[in-house]
C-alpha cells in the first residue's frame, strides 16, 4: 500500500490543481511537521475535503508531518472518494464502510479542527482510529447534512393511526403505500433489475420526545419491529398519516424514527491506545458517538453530544454517546455533555462468547451470539480465558488459549493448553480475563434527555464517577452484564460514586431505580452469585419526584451508601400504583446503607453552588446553558 | 491459515464423533485420493453437511485427496458453520457471504454428487470456485428450502389493487401494513434497539408468469421500485390484497416477487481456470446460476436450470442462468436447459470503467459505475487498456498500466506508461483489452420461459451458437455493450449462428426483434461506429407469430443471413398496431441478407427431426420433456 501510495502520491491531490501543489504546496502546507489543510487544498466552499485528508495522511505516513490543522470554517466530506474498509464494530452494525478520516497505523498524530465544522454527506464514518497510538483529535464540530434518523411532529394520535408533520430536514416519500425516508436528492436513475444504489434512511423503531423539555416524553415507550417499514398516506404536503395503532405519543411530541442500523458511528477506535478527543461537538452520526474496542488509554474531555443549534432536530446521535468494549489502561470522560442521544451515555463492558460445542477436553466451539458482536474477535493464541457458568455468571476457572480457528464472524474453534474443568458445559461462556480492565474516571459530565439510561458500568478496573449531573429517563447508573442476551461481560470490582447530582431521573420506562443492578443472573442463583463488588455511593444529591427506589440491587458483595442527600420535587406526575421504598437490596452482603439526609430546595442550591454541578430544570430547558452548544448553521 | 487448520484439524469434524473419526474415519473415508463423504460423516438425515465439506476440503488442501464423492440422497447445508468471505461478484450484489463449498486455492479437484440433492438453508452461497484450476463438479441437484423470491397466484386485478393467494412455500406476514416475506421459522427474539438477525426475503420487483405455458405471461411488464415494500392487508388466511394499482397481470397468473438483491448466486467462479460443471440440476439460487469473472476455460455440460418438480414454483432461479465477465480461453455450454429463470440465459461481456478525472497526461481516475460491478477490479500493473470514446464506443488506442491505487470499490487511480491520446476526455471509458476474449460454443441448449432475452453475446473471441432452441419472450440473441448505463464491454468480432430453432420468440416486452443489436452507441455516431463485426446467421428455423423483425441491427460491419427458414404460426395474438418487416438493418456495411425460405408445418417437422432440435409447443408445455427435470421432493 505504501509503495503504491508513493508511486502515485500526486494523484491524491485530486481537485486542488497539480501544478500549484508541486510548486508551492509542498513547502507552504507544512511547517515543522504541521500541515495547514487549507494550504493543502481544503476549501470551505462545499467541495469534498476527503481527498485532501487522504493526501495529508499520506504525508503523515511518510513521516513528513504529525499534525493537521484546519482554519475555521465549514468543510464538507463525501463518500465518493473516501477509503473504505470492512469493519466489525462492537454494538454497532458491521459492513464495508467509507471513512472520511481513516487514521490507521498512526503514531503520535494530532488533528486540530481549529473550531471548524465538519459536515458529512451520506453513508460515511467520520473518524476511524485503528491500530494506532497517541492520536489526538480536537476543536471541531461534526454533523451530517441529512441525519440518519427522522423526526415528525405529532399532530394527532388515535387508536388506528398517528398524523405527523415533517420539515424539509427529513425528506420522505410514500412509496407503494409505505413511508420511506430519502436523501435530499430524489433518485432519478432508471428502474431495472439492478439494486439502485439510492441512499435511503430506513427506520426500525419509534420514540416520542418532548420538545419543550428536550427529552424523551414522560413515560414514552419504544415501538419496535418497524424494520420493514410502515403503511402511510400523505394527508397534504409534509403531513403524513402513519397507520400504526396505539402509539405511545401525544400531540406536540416529536416522534423520532430510529435508524434500522448503526452503520456510521462518529468515532470508531479499534486496537489502539493513547487516544485523546477534546473540544468536540458531536451533533450527529448514524450509530454510537465514540465506540472503542480492544483499546487502551482513552481520554475524552469536553465532548458535547448535542443536537445542532437552531432547533431543527430534537435528537443528537442515534445510539449511545460512548461505548467501550474490552478496553484496558484508563478511560476518562471529563467535562462532557451527553444529551438527547438515542441511547445510553456510556457502557463499559467486555464480551462473552457462548460455548456451543465441546469437542474434546481441551477443544470447543464458541459463538459470538449478539449480532452486533459478531466478528469482534477477542480470542487469540495466548489469551487467558475466564470460564463462566452461564446462569449464575460465576467464574469456574481460567484457561490459556493454544490455538484458534475462526470459522466465520460468529463461530470460532478454540483449543486450550489444558483440559477445561469438568463442570464447564455447553451454554456456559468465556471472556478474555485480561480485557475489560480499564480504570475509569467520569467527572463533571452532564447526561440528560437521552433515551434509556445514563451510564452502564462493567469494567473490572477501578471506577470513579464524580461530580456529574444525571437527568435520565431510566436508571442513571446501571450495573449490567449477562451471557444470555447482550453477552456483555461486566461484574465490577471497585466503584466510587460521589458528589453527583441525580436530578429527577426515572421519568421514563427504562429502569426500576436511580442506581440499579440489572445483571443477567438467573433468579435461583442470585443468592449465591456475587457478580458485582465494592460499590461505594457517597455525598450525592438525589432530587426525586419518582416513587422508584434510589437503589435496586442484588448479588452485590460490598455496598456502601453514606452521606447522601435527598430532595423531594414535583417535577413530573407520580404514577399512582407505584409504592415508594428508598432501597431494594437483596441477596447481597457487606452492605452499609444509611438513609439520605433530607434537604430543602434552598439547602440544595447552596450545596450545588459549592460543588459546581449544574442542576437541570426540566420545565425551563430553554434556559439551559447555551455555552455548551456550538453554533453550526 | 493452513497451520491453524492443521493444529485443530480435528475440530473440523464437528458433529461426527471424535473417536470414530480418529479410529476408522481416516482410513475408510478415502481410497486412492477419493473421499466418501458418507464415511466422513455426511448424513441424509437433515443434519448440517457444511462442516463435513470443510473437513473434506481440508484433506484436499493437505494433498490427501482430489475427489469427493457423495452417495445418493438428500444432504442439507446451513450457514451457521459455513466459512465466509467478502465477495465482489460482477452483476450480482457484493457482501460478506457464507459459502457451503468454499473451493478456494484448489488444483485438480472433483466433486461427484452421485445424483444427490443438495438443499441449502437461508443465506448461503452453494459453490465458490476461487483462485483454483481444474475443478469439476458433477451429478447433483441444488435447491433451497425457502426460495429467495416469492410467488402468489393472482385472484383478481383492479385499478387499485391485486388479490393474491400464497401457498406455504412462500410464508409471509403483514407487518405494520406492509407485505413481508419471512422464513418458515417465525422470528421469536426480543424486540430491542439491536438489528434482529431475522432472515427475511425482501422483494423489489413483480412480474406475472403464465402457469399453463410455464413462461412469462404474454406481454407482461416488470413492475419495479418495490424495494421498500408495498402496503397490503390480509383478506383471509393465505390471501392478501396488495395495494398496488394497475398491475400488469391477469387472474390465474403467478405473480413473482423478485428478490431485492442478488446475494446468493449458485456457482461463483472467480480468478480460476479449467472449470467443468456437468449433470447439475439448478432448481434455485438467489442470484445468477453460474457467474464467472476473470476466469478461463469454463465448460458447462448438461446444466439444467429449472424449477423443482412438483409444480410448487414457477420460477427457477432469480437472475441470469449464466453470466461471464472478462473471461478468456474457452466457454462452452452444451446440452443445457435454461428455463423460467428471472433473467437472460447468458451474457458474455467485459467491463468498462468510466474516466472521471484526468489528473496528468498519464494519470487519471476511473469509476466502476454500475453498482453491481463495484469492486470487480480488473486494472493491474501491466494491464493493456483499450481507450474508448464514450458516445460511439469506438476505440481510440491502447495504454499500458504502470501503477494502480484503489481508493474504494468504485474509484481507482491509474497511471499509464505513456501519456493518453489527447482526444481521450472525461466521460470516455477504458476496458481490459485482453480480457473478454473467450471463444464461445453454445450448442444444443434449450432456452425458454425465462424473463427477458435468450443470450447476450459480447465476447471478442470466436463464438458459435448452434443447434439450440430459443423460446424467449424478448430477443433470442442480443448484441449489447455500452459505457453509459450497464458498462458492459462487448462488440463481437466473429459470430456464427447456425442450425438453431427460434420458436415463437418475442411474446414479451424485452426486445424489438428475434436477433437484435442493442449496443449503447449514441444515435449520431451509429453511422460511423462499427461496434459489432462478422455475424453469420445461417440455416436457422424461425417460427414466428410476431410482427417484429427477425433482425434489427445497426453499426455492424459484416452481416450474413443466408439459408434460413421461416414458418408462420398463430401461437400468440398479434398486437394490431405493429408493422411487419423481416429486417431492420441500418448504418451497417458488408451486409448480405437473403429472405428466408418459407416452410410449412410439415416441412418444418421433417427438418427438425433430421436436425434433432426440440420444437416447443407453448400451449402444451405440460408435455415437455420431463427427463430434463430431476425429482427432488
Commentary on this structure:
Two copies of one chain form a homodimer. In chain A, 6% of the residues lie in helices and 42% in strands. In chain A, the strands form five sheets. Chain A has a 22-stranded mixed β-sheet that branches. Mean pLDDT of chain A is 91; it is low at 1-28 and 617-633. By secondary structure, chain A is mostly beta strands. Chain A folds into four domains: 33-148 and 263-343, Pectate Lyase C-like; 150-259, no CATH class; 351-432, Thrombin, subunit H; 440-633, no CATH class. At the A-B interface, helix 1, strand 5, strand 27, strand 30 and strand 31 of A face helix 1, strand 5, strand 27, strand 30 and strand 31 of B.
Classify the helix fraction of chain A into a percent range. Answer: under 10%
Low-confidence residue ranges of chain A: 1-28, 617-633
Tally of strands of chain A: 50
Oligomer: homodimer
Keywords (chains A, B): Glycosidase, Hydrolase, Repeat, Signal
Pfam family, one (chains A, B): Beta-barrel_GLAA-B_I
GO molecular function (chains A, B): alpha-galactosidase activity
